[in-house]
Amino acid sequence: METLVLFDIDGTLVTGGPAKDAFALALERVYGTTGPIEAWEFSGKTDPQIARELLREAGLGDRDIEAGFSGLWEAYLGEMEQRIFQEPTRLLPGVTALVDALDGTGTAALALLTGNVADGARLKLEAVGLARRFAVGAYGSDHEIRNELPAIAWERARTHWGVTFAPERVLVVGDTPRDVACGRYFGARTVAVATGRFSRRELSEAGPDVILDDFSDTPSALEAFLR
Fold first, then answer.
1. Is the confidence at residue 92, as pLDDT, over 90?
2. Which residue among 83, 105, 127 closes a domain?
3. 164 and 54 in one domain?
4. Is residue 101 located within the same domain as residue 200?
5. Using H for helix, E for strand and C for coil, what is the string for the chain?
6. Into how many domains does the chain fold?
7. CA-to-CA distance for 101 and 96, rounded, in angstroms?
8. pLDDT of 160-214, one tens digit each?
9. At what angle are helices 69-83 and 19-31 packed, to 10 degrees?
10. Residues forming beta bridges with residue 172, ordered by sequence position
């Protein structure tokens, strides 16, 4: 293995699904409020960060917020399990072909870097048949601050594959400026894909190494990933 590719999930690999509704129901059940969830920006944040921001806006202190976290994730994942196959996530264009092509090179190690808690990530990817394609990852359940996740994913990849990937051979792939920022924080190369809510112009301002409209042109995407 020569290159470690760290994929975001929402807006990068998949779209849709019941996560926001499940999150709102879990917040209401555990804390008695959702905070200003309908107006809140979720993109590129970790699940604990989102919960903390919403609950602070609702007037809760950090001690009370953290005391409810274990119950929150249990409730959230229960709602996700009940809803995911009635309202499944959907693959974004070219994702399966790109994952197949990267696997086929024999030189790319595929992993996740996502703000989802680990079991939430699993449920979203199981719904589209991708859960087994990523051997390791770093998740919002590992650290609330997204910039800390690349180092966690890198260490897990080093242990799993027995390869110490040089930072310049690590590629962080995502659809938000926060994905780009966390990759740059680690010293990785970054690929921004305009399949989420951010335009090419907005993504370009974050300074990624590569910007793609989507992954539908597999040869071009593969070249951008492995150059």
1. yes
2. 83
3. no
4. yes
5. CCEEEEECCECCCEECCCHHHHHHHHHHHHHCCCCCHHHCCCCCCCHHHHHHHHHHHCCCCHHHHHHCHHHHHHHHHHHHHHHCCCCCCEECCCHHHHHHHHHHHCCEEEEEECCCCHHHHHHHHHCCCCHHHCCEEECCCCCCCHHHHHHHHHHHHHHHHCCCCCHHHEEEEECCHHHHHHHHHHCCEEEEECCCCCCHHHHHCCCCCEEECCCCCHHHHHHHHHC
6. 2
7. 9
8. 999 999 999 999 999 999 999 999 999 999 999 999 999 999 999 999 999 999 9
9. 140
10. 6, 190
DSSP collapsed to 3 states, 152-164: HHHHHHHHHHCCC
| 198 and 177 within one domain | yes
pLDDT for the residue 227: 80
- Going by C-alpha positions, the residue among 130, 148, 123, 124 that lies closest to residue 138 is 148
pLDDT tens, position by position, 97-114: 999 999 999 999 999 999
> Quick one: tokens of 217?
């042109």
Print the domain residue range for 184. Answer: 3-16+88-226
Q: How far is CA 20 from CA 16, 107, 128, 172, in A?
A: 9, 36, 18, 24
Instruction: Give dist(CA 81, CA 63) in Å, integer.
Output: 28
Question: What is the four-CA torsion angle of 41, 90, 198, 154, rounded to 10 degrees?
Answer: 80
- Whether the full predicted model's pTM is greater than 0.90, yes or no, is yes
